[in-house]
């Protein structure tokens, strides 16, 4: 009996043995090499994007530091615009990347919107109302750190996970490791966008300089930790990882998320005042270090699995 014909999962062209298999899916030789390529251009432009966001927000905050005569409604409107600008910049960046198989815009939009809605209607009510974190977390540093990690960090990370899992994880569009980083980053941006919108609305507008720095720092941080979660999910999809691998990724991303949120408050505090420039510096460092670690991990995974599997 002849063996059933196999087809490349990218272009549906017939392939002959020995087959190149990744995550239980068959690739032709050309697409197998492409699906595992390091995407050095992506990483270089990602670092450039982070630096541009940090520098641009710093310069803009410096130029607007003495603007205090805007009315409260105007401060709210301007603040809301700034709240969505980091996410818009990231999305434009993603769409400009030259990839093997560009991510469908509806998938990107669905993940972003789902993470945003879940944060607003489930995440924040759980934190503020059900667990009442603002009422007791500031009692001392230990309770603040515990609440930031065990409640805030895990809730936001769970939202990112379900946003990816629901819309794209089991679909054909999720066909290379880099997809994990992209979709994870988008889910993180959905969380960040809602956090930034609430930050502006809850404060009835904010001073422009610290407000700009806050929204950019939040976007950089949540995008980074979403990328970490996306890496773990991608590894689990394309390699035979143990059952605890994805939960480990959730724990790592949640701890990093909560630790950063706690640390940013400690670093930016200057007596009874806040120094937003310290927050921006820490946010830039965390984003660059996180994406640098992801570059290393992805390159190591690529070098390990570029060897064709034979069946």
Task: Give a written overview of the molecule.
The chain is mainly alpha-helical. The chain folds into 2 domains: 1-35; 38-305, no CATH class. Helices cover 72% and strands 5% of the residues. The protein contains 10 helices and 6 strands; from the N terminus they run E-E-E-E-H-H-H-H-H-H-H-H-H-E-E-H. It has helices spanning 29-35, 40-63, 72-95, 105-130, 133-136, 141-167, 177-202, 208-238, 245-268, 276-305; strands at residues 6-7, 14-15, 20-22, 25-27, 269-270, 273-274. It has a two-stranded antiparallel ribbon. It has a two-stranded antiparallel sheet with strand order 3-4. A two-stranded antiparallel ribbon has the order 5-6. The longest helix is centred in the C-terminal third of the chain and has 31 residues, at 208-238. It is globular. The model has no long low-confidence stretch (mean pLDDT 83).
């Amino acid at each position: 009996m002849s063996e059933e014909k196999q087809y490349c999962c990218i272009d549906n062209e017939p392939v002959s043995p020995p087959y190149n298999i990744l995550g239980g899916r068959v690739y032709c030789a050309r697409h197998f090499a492409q699906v595992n390529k390091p995407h050095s251009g992506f990483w270089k432009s990602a670092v450039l994007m982070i630096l541009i966001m940090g520098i641009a927000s710093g310069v803009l905050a410096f130029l607007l530091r003495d603007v205090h005569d805007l009315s409260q409604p105007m401060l709210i409107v301007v603040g809301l615009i700034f709240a969505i600008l980091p996410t818009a910049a990231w999305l434009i960046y993603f769409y400009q990347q030259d990839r093997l198989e560009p991510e469908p815009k509806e998938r990107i939009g669905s993940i972003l919107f789902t993470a945003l809605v879940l944060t607003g209607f489930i995440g924040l009510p759980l934190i503020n109302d059900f667990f009442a974190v603002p009422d007791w977390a500031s009692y001392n540093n230990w309770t603040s750190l515990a609440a930031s990690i065990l409640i805030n960090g895990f809730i936001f990370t769970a939202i990112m996970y379900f946003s990816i899992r629901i819309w794209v994880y089991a679909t054909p569009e999720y066909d290379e490791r880099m997809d994990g980083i992209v979709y994870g980053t988008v889910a993180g941006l959905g969380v960040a966008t809602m956090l930034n919108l609430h930050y502006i609305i809850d404060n009835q507008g904010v001073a422009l300089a610290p407000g700009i720095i806050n929204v950019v720092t939040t976007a950089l941080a949540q995008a980074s930790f979403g990328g970490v979660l996306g890496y773990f999910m991608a590894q689990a999809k394309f390699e035979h990882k143990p059952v605890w691998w994805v939960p480990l990724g959730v724990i790592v991303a949640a701890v990093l998320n909560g630790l950063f949120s706690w640390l940013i408050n400690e670093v930016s505090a200057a007596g009874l005042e806040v120094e937003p420039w310290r927050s921006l510096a820490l946010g830039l460092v965390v984003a660059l270090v996180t994406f640098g670690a992801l570059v290393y991990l992805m390159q190591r995974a690529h070098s390990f699995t570029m060897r064709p599997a034979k069946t």
